[in-house]
Amino acid sequence: MRIKLLSYLVAVSAFTLVGCDSKSAEEYIAAAKVQYQKNDTQAAIIDLKNAIALDPKNKEARANLGKYYLGAGSFVESEKELRRAIELGEAKESVYPDLVKAIYYQNDFDRLILLTKDFTSSDPQVQSSVALFSFLAALKQTNSETELSNDFSLMLGDDKILAQVYYEFSQGNLEEADQLLTRFENPQQNHIEKLIVTGLLKAQLKQYSPAISALEQVVNLSPEYYVIQFQLADILINAQEYAKARTLTDQLLKINARSAYANLLMAKIELHDENYKKAFDTAEIAVQNGIDSTQSNLLAGVSAYKIERTESAYKYLSKASKGLPHDHMANRLLVDVKIRLGETENLAEMLEGISGQDAQKSSLLESAAMLKFREGDLEGSKSLFS
Description:
Order of helices and strands: HHHHHHHHHHHHHHHHHHHHHH
Strand content: under 5%
Number of strands: 0
Number of helices: 22
Helix content: over 70%
Structural class: mainly alpha
């Protein structure tokens, strides 16, 4: 009897709770707008999910959820909801400004350009926003062979200024771009993109403090936008803030331990901290996973040299030297490695390219000459000794 009574009370309590929270989809949508205006984006998202649970085909709830996801930095989810809103009949004009941003922040520039190719709007502000992000996508296309247009006639106000900042930046006119940063009138409009370009531009001007501050704000606002975390880590290294760079890079490696760029960044940090074995391991992972560059080969080669992995040092320094000046430190190390391995080919030419008359160069010359002597190349040995 007691068990039946308890079950009855639980059922009544549950019914009472449901009855107390019998909001309609429209009420949830209205509540979400209030929460969003209070900057409580997560609460707004929850309200809209409740609205959609009650009315899955509510286009307003879908469109607003896409907008709020965009504000929270959840770009894939944002695109999904915005596209669903269009499918349900929401006007493209009201959705496209957010949709192009959601695609842009997924770094899917080709798809964005294809989407907006023939887009026109009778609303000048909508047209301006879409034109801005179409321009930014064209700017950041990796395989673009067409000349970048600087026709900003469809853009208005801060959209036009932001496009001009990026254009001058891309042309190497850093001071002109920096001056344009002071002309923004509405800081909240495209707030994230303004912070990004400020951070990247200030870093190029070696003004590291404002650069780091701007990009840290982006990371806080959009924690899933990992591209900026990579760029911030690189700037922290250039600013010699290695402890902060290590913390950030560790977080990136926890997400993807085989990330080529994250391992490249960690190799720089480990080399600075004289952890040469770790520097070699991470640099090698970077090379193996796609960053086969002068920088990555140099990091791997120098680290291998420090831990006396002579053959690996030879492999990576040989590749790195092709992109470096003759008198670069790496070529001194490469000569030393070749001597250790008993290889005499092109030694004389390489040593001629190494500048200076310091003790290290003299030692290399002497070692190379002795190697030539042991091989019976007396003329070559004599030339190096001289």
